Amino acid sequence: MLPQRIELLQAMPVFGALRADALELLLARAASRQVRAGEAFFREQEPASSMFVLERGRAAVVKHWAGRELVLHRLGAGDCFGEMALMDLLPRSATVLAELDCLALEFNNDDLLHLFERDPEQFALIQMNLGREVCRRLRAADAALFRVMVGDATGLVDPAAGPFRAA
């Protein structure tokens, strides 16, 4: 299972270019979380200190507004979520609900601190990767907001994804 998990992580932007030994160090400390369909990985405004990598299943990122749940994005195997918690230490900005039974790896701040203590270079690389991923998502959100502001909602509504989708 370890080689498959390393391969999964190395294919992701957040863990890209990390050496296998650094990923093994992280994986040795990572928690494995099973979340049943209909249950939440976490809820909006809860305290946050970890990110997740979805190994199996499907989940939805949702925001609550006017008594409704709006799906912002759907996640599948190989997607990561909750990574802002490792950078800003603020409460969760959205809820992530399992749509199918899910299996995910959970990495927390202590796991990254352990990596820093063992290999500062690999720690710095993951921090840069996290920053790039957050910036990529911010650019997509900015582009979507701009399209809404100018009255061009083309591509913002996807019946499969829900009322909104990530660009």
Number of domains as seen in the coordinates? 1
Count up the helices: 5
CATH superfamily: Jelly Rolls
Strand content: 25-35%
Mean pLDDT: 90
Gross CATH architecture:
Sandwich
CATH class: Mainly Beta
Element pattern in H and E: HHEEEEEEHEEHH
CATH topology, by name, is Jelly Rolls
Number of strands: 8
Radius of gyration: 16 Å
Major sheet size, sense and barrel closure: 4 strands, antiparallel
Q: What general form does the structure show?
A: globular
Separation, N- and C-terminal Cα atoms: 33 Å
Secondary structural class: alpha+beta
Structure commentary:
This protein has helices at 2-10, 20-29, 85-88, 109-118, 120-149, and strands at 31-35, 40-42, 50-56, 59-65, 68-75, 80-81, 95-98, 102-108. The protein starts with a helix and ends in an 18-residue tail after the last helix. The chain is of the alpha+beta class and 167 residues long. The strands form 2 sheets. The protein has a 4-stranded antiparallel sheet with strand order 1-8-3-6. Strands 2-7-4-5 form a 4-stranded antiparallel sheet, with no helix packed on it. It is built from 5 helices and 8 strands. Helix 1 (2-10) crosses helix 2 (20-29) and helix 2 crosses helix 4. The chain has a single domain (2-149), classed as Jelly Rolls (Sandwich), CATH 2.60.120.10.
Give a brief outline of the structure:
The chain has 167 residues and is of the alpha+beta class.
List the defining traits of the structure above.
about 170 residues; alpha+beta; Jelly Rolls; 4-stranded antiparallel β-sheet; 5 helices; about 25% strand; globular
Which secondary structure elements does this structure contain, and how are they paired or packed?
Blueprint: H1 2-10, H2 20-29, E1 31-35, E2 40-42, E3 50-56, E4 59-65, E5 68-75, E6 80-81, H3 85-88, E7 95-98, E8 102-108, H4 109-118, H5 120-149
Helix pairs in contact: 1-2, 2-4, 4-5
